Amino acid sequence: MEVVSPQRILVVGAGHVGLYAALRLSRKLRARQAEVTVVDPQPHMTYQPFLPEAAAGNISPRHSVVPLRRELKRCKIVSGAVTRIEHSRKTATVQPIIGPPLEIEYDQIIVAPGSVSRTLPIPGLRENGIGFKTIGEAIYLRNHVLDRLDVAAATTDPETRRRALTFAFVGGGYAGIEALAEMEDMARDALKYYPELSVGDMRWVLVEATQRVLPEVDRDMGAYTVQQLLNRGLDIRLDTRLESCVDGVVKLSDGDSFASDTIVWTAGVKPSPMLDDTDLPRDDKRRISCLPTLQVVDGDKVVEGAWSAGDCAAVPDLTGPPGTFCSPSAQHAVRQAARMADNIRAVIRGKEPVPYKHKHAGSVASLGLHKGVAQVYGIKLKGPIAWFMHRTYHVSRIPSFNRKVRVVIDWTLAFFLKREVVALGQLHDPREEFTEVTPRVG
Length: 442
Ligand SMILES: Cc1cc2nc3c(=O)[nH]c(=O)nc-3n(C[C@H](O)[C@H](O)[C@H](O)COP(=O)(O)OP(=O)(O)OC[C@H]3O[C@@H](n4cnc5c(N)ncnc54)[C@H](O)[C@@H]3O)c2cc1C
What we know:
single chain, alpha/beta, 25 strands, globular
């Protein structure tokens, strides 16, 4: 059945789910069938699996993001944040990056604002911690770590030097492990240009509350990862929690305590808090309740016109035991996006949606240049081959041919010319010098 007036499809969030779904819908539906509007406060989608490599300087940060206006030419882009969804009125409130809030009416809504860092009320964390989920955080961390090497090389005070060269990471999932391993690898490389410092002066600490790292792979692969990091001289604390970090003094549950200028929090994610201002049904983990078709569901009743997927959604995993849900991962997010787009197309044409079913293929993680760990369809790989697999997998996944070429060129340049290890600290305070030389008026 052909629709008469175009369906107004609103996409909340242009991340892994939103970008892929909008792209597919705009390609598969004609303008007279659908108008796709995408709302996101960022002008780009961030390919998060590349954040550790962007922070380590193997990829330009600009190449690990995908510009929305360039890729979604057939969609309307609204730069702002959705602050409220009243699905009973099929209306979303948007706070644009400038100007008063506006209301957008829709026929179908894709709710995909993803997740935020899952933090805990730990004294000092708010003031001293930094997350690792955005491109801004990745760039900041890179500059900050390199800047700490400069501080350590310049100071004559042993306490300041020790503190500058102590880097603490909390959380041993793939984000934390990759961020830690890549940053340590970069800092180790950078030390070649610091005759004042040696690798033994640095202290890299991983604090993980459970007894293992990388829960996405089998225990033996997690144990291998720990052993690799120990061999590199990293300090791995399993079964240990961060108790406080007031004024940068890290106190651990095992009784140890040390001062650090760098405390990175990568201990998991929780659904976007924006969902609190919606009338959509949610589960006990505050995720949007979905059917395997990616339609939002209230009890056993489909919420007509509402769809969700990715980190903010509870999507039943049809390949697991009953009651299990798809893990928050890019792997599920992009596949769910494709299924959802096809299901929306089917529903507006009066056809039946198809359930999403994908068995998690496994994980690939980079542990620095030429080092990695991977478990894909049960096959376990270690070292350079796993690292190569990590790179080929992710370059095949990042959206657009343009990005793929840029990323491969970045890697090739870094291979021949070595990566750049210089801090651009002024990025974080660019007006300082100009303000100092400009006279005050009045
Ligand atoms: C460092 C790191 C490494 C990772 N590595 C891997 C990996 O190797 N393999 C893997 O499978 N997964 C990996 N992941 C996880 C993966 O990136 C996520 O599961 C995936 O991004 C989830 O997709 P999403 O679309 O739900 O959310 P996102 O991709 O986070 O997108 C959410 C979007 O919504 C926007 N948004 C937020 N709030 C609003 C609002 N109020 N209004 C409008 N827009 C909003 C955001 O700006 C963002 O663009 C990694 C994550 C991190 C942080």
